[in-house]
Amino acid sequence: MNITNQVFEQDRASLTIENSSIPVVNAIRRSMLCDIPMIAVSKVHITKNNTPMPDDMLSHRIGLIPIYIDTSIDLENVHLYIDKSGPCELYSDDISCTSDLIRIVKGVFICPLYNDQHIKLKGDIEIGTGKQHARFQRSVAPCYYMTHKGISTPECFCANTTLDTKCERCGKNKQPLDVQQRPIVYNLTFESIGGISTTDLLTQSIQVLMAKLQNMAITINQLEDID
Ligand SMILES: [Zn+2]
């Protein structure tokens, strides 16, 4: 597997993977999406909410606000609080936290508060993975598109599309035969959230994937021992 055209910025990255296959690239993508741990608000105790926004929708919005932590601490004793009256607009900036180690992303709009409207709540934090819920996802939109080597724009890989035409199904161009004989490469792009660098995110995703495969190999070996 070769990696070329790599651009790793703080919160977004793109790279081209050569000599690989769809299952391998997709396994890395899914690992990035589902298996990297992150903290999020998981329980919201609402003591006052006389806005038109229902409690469950308000809780959902609070849960999806990205929060970061750089070290591991006991999350049971860490809580977020909102106590705000209108008229104003409620943003993530209005959330206070009992621990200075938790960083809350600023500027996330929650809801408007009109005259005499008041929201008072407490949030409990948990650690989880994207497999449990989207609020724990540490990557945004990890995706790949395939091209033939030397081509930079997405191509049509649909079956039954005539060569060298624009595909009616996907709207992309089906390359002519001389291009189709070049190797296929995979262009992977993703963004990171949760204070993790894009290189760490990719490395951890691959480590999780390798650990899973090693576990599988150990299990298979044990089956052989029984026989
Ligand atoms: Zn197509």
Structure in words:
The chain has 227 residues and is an alpha+beta fold. The protein folds into two domains: 2-36 and 138-226, 2-Layer Sandwich (Gyrase A, domain 2); 38-133, DNA-directed RNA polymerase, insert domain (RNA Polymerase Alpha Subunit, Chain A, domain 2, Beta Complex). The protein has four helices and twelve strands. β1 and β2 form a beta hairpin. α1 crosses α4. It is globular and about 70 Å long. The two termini are 36 Å apart. Residues 156, 158, 161, 167, 169-170, 172 line the site of zinc ion (ZN). Zinc ion binds next to loops.
Distance between the termini: 36 Å
Number of separate helices: 4
| Rg calculated over all Cα atoms | 23 Å
Bound molecules: zinc ion
Structurally, the number of domains stands at: 2
Largest sheet: 4 strands, antiparallel
CATH architecture of the largest domain: 2-Layer Sandwich
Tell how many strands the DSSP assignment holds: 12
Return residue spans where pLDDT drops below 50 for at least 5 consecutive residues. Answer: none
Order of helices and strands: EEHEHEEEEEEEEHEH
CATH class group of the largest domain? Alpha Beta
Helical proportion, percent range:
10-25%
Predict the CATH topology of the largest domain. Gyrase A, domain 2
CATH superfamily of the largest domain: RNA polymerase, RBP11-like subunit
Shape: globular
- Largest sheet, spatial ordering of strands: 1-2-12-11
Mean pLDDT: 91
Quote the beta fraction.
25-35%
Structural class: alpha+beta
